[in-house]
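Can anyone check this?
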Amino acid sequence: MHRLYFIFIAILLSGNLRAQQVILSGVVRDASSGETLIGAVVSVQNGELATSTNTYGFYSLTVPGGRHSVVLSYVGHQTLVQDMDVTGSQRVNFEVK
């Protein structure tokens, strides 16, 4: 009986740990032309988590919930840093100059 109780608690705790991960996604565009940018790099400030946009300018990055500085960089454009609270999966579109 105690073993069953322990397994039940372990399953509940592992679900809570996974629930803290959220998905940040969106599209990156050029601010002046509106064109989507292929290969733009979207990362979290510490650089441990990063991804690049696909052929449609779309990115998706799984991050722990909380406050993050999201960095967007693309060759020939200004690097954009945006601080945000990520409390749940959300879509954030960027326009870079």
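Reply from J.R.: I decoded it. The mean pLDDT is 86.
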